[in-house]
Specification:
Blueprint: H1 2-5, H2 7-19, H3 32-53, E1 69-79, E2 82-91, H4 110-121, H5 126-137, H6 143-162
Antiparallel strand pairs: 1-2
Helix pairs in contact: 3-6, 4-6
Function: Required for the transposition of the insertion element.
Protein name: Mutator family transposase
Organism: Nonomuraea maheshkhaliensis
């Protein structure tokens, strides 16, 4: 995480969480870590659905394909920072079976989020990430799916990094 955020940002966040004046909590409902843990799998799920459907969100190529996005369903999963409420995307045909956050799974390993961010931050290739997912989680994902997921995760991390911070 230090590679992505830098020491100054981490120090500022830690200071704001200690003094109680910054209104920033590290863990628990609505916390900094909880929101990041929520955002990463939600982005990954959206990327997974795009790979499943064969087109991205709002892509005109999806018109008339016979299957499309069909909203989201709420799901609470246990994570390393506590329970997190996810919005899991659905497809109209009901054929989307999420791999990274499987149906009926009540727990997300904190290692999954950490691994996706870490592998991408360390410049690993899609093939290397695919190998790690297969070895650790027994998950088989295509190169395209992994690329979409890592792109979505990096986008979320950059958005989180660039968010405005209140003065301490």
């Amino acid at each position: 995480m230090r590679d992505l955020l830098g020491d100054q940002v981490l120090d500022l966040l830690l200071e704001r969480s200690k003094d109680g004046k910054g209104g920033l909590r590290l863990t628990g409902d609505g916390s900094m870590l909880g929101e990041l843990v929520k955002a990463v799998p939600e982005r990954a799920l959206e990327a997974e659905l795009s790979s499943h459907l064969g087109y991205g969100k709002h892509d005109p190529a999806g018109h008339g394909t016979g299957n499309s996005r069909n909203g989201r369903i709420g799901k609470t999963v246990q994570t390393g920072v506590g329970p997190v409420r996810l919005a899991v995307p659905r497809d109209r045909a009901g054929t989307f079976e999420p791999v990274l956050v499987p149906k009926r799974a009540g727990r997300i390993s904190g290692g999954l989020n950490d691994m996706i961010i870490s592998l991408y931050a360390h410049g690993m290739s899609v093939r290397d990430i695919q190998h790690h997912l297969r070895q650790i989680y027994e998950v088989e994902l295509s190169h395209e799916a992994i690329s979409n997921i890592t792109d979505a995760v990096l986008e979320e991390v950059r958005a989180w990094q660039a968010r405005p911070l209140e003065a301490a």
